[in-house]
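Readers of this paper often ask what the protein records in our data store actually look like. The remainder of this section carries one protein's record, kept here as part of the documentation.

:::
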Amino acid sequence: MTTRYCSLAQQPAPEFAPGLAAERRGALIGGSRMWVNGTVLHYYFFDADNAAATDTSVIPVPGTGERRRVPWAGAKEQQDVVRECFREWRGLGIGVDFAEVRDRSEAELRIGFQPGDGSWSAVGRDALTIGLSDRTMNFGWDLTAPGERGTALHEIGHALGMLHEHQSPFAGIHWDDEAVYAELAGPPNFWSRDRTRFNVLRKLDPDEVNGSVWDPQSIMEYPFASGLILEPEEYRTGLHPHGSLPLRQGVRPALVPARRPSPDGRTGAVPVGAAAPGAGRAGGLRDRADTDARVRRRLLRGQRHGRRGLRGTGRRTAFPRRAGRRGHAAQRHTQGQARQGPPLLRPCASVLHVGFGETAVMCW
């Protein structure tokens, strides 16, 4: 039986002013979906007890040409799987926390369980553009079935701002395109050629990617059957990621891009997966505690001199509000800033490599 796949909705390409420098364009694209370190993401489950009349939608019935209205509510056992997966992501120390809320208007992430609509999620801060009565994530099949827990981990990865690993421009995958189209056109996915191209065959723009190394075991990697991948040769017989969140012992990741001087003296984002100053062969810092102390001392000196920022950097630091129940959802509704969300970057000091093929950054 063919694997059921996550299907991301196509988004219009971002538009930029003519003449925008390539470096600036890359920074805007690469950071636009990432959450600020320290953000509390509030999540809400659509369920039968709190269902509104609008908590349904009409979806097509594959292979019949018919359509039917299906509610978004999910049973407690389905919700519990997602709760456990939020806890697992939190356990990595990623610099972003999660809190369940009972009021959808307080939630950045609103989760439905509509069967037949597939499993999908808004990517990162794209969730802030979706109406408060709508879903930002959906699970379209039974998460309690063997092997399906990885679906919940995968969709939460999208909600954190991650994209599909196999679409990395650095993966070097050569597909048998027609075999892929044929595989996904049938059950259980019933995908059109456009959807297959967008979610599988399309290569991401390098500016969209927070990594320089492909990790075939990433939680964001699809499994693929034999005969779909031509190169690398070792995956001609299939690609089978383990569907979990491995982590090297002692490494605590966060999901905010780092910034460091580039060879020409400018400051640029450190791509996920790239080597970092002070990183040893295993990707850890030589002396992380010492780095933390130096940065905090600089922050305190800046505050004593009337600046909220890193002394000598020439920029201010807008520290994130420590969110309560409303957290950043409340920030989005301040004067003229409806649904803008928190700022994108913080000064960062440390770059760490984690076990699922991504480099992570610890920030304050």
User: Anything to note?
Assistant: The chain is about 20% helix and 15% strand. The first strand starts at residue 40 and ends at 45. The radius of gyration is 21 Å. The chain has a mean pLDDT of 73.
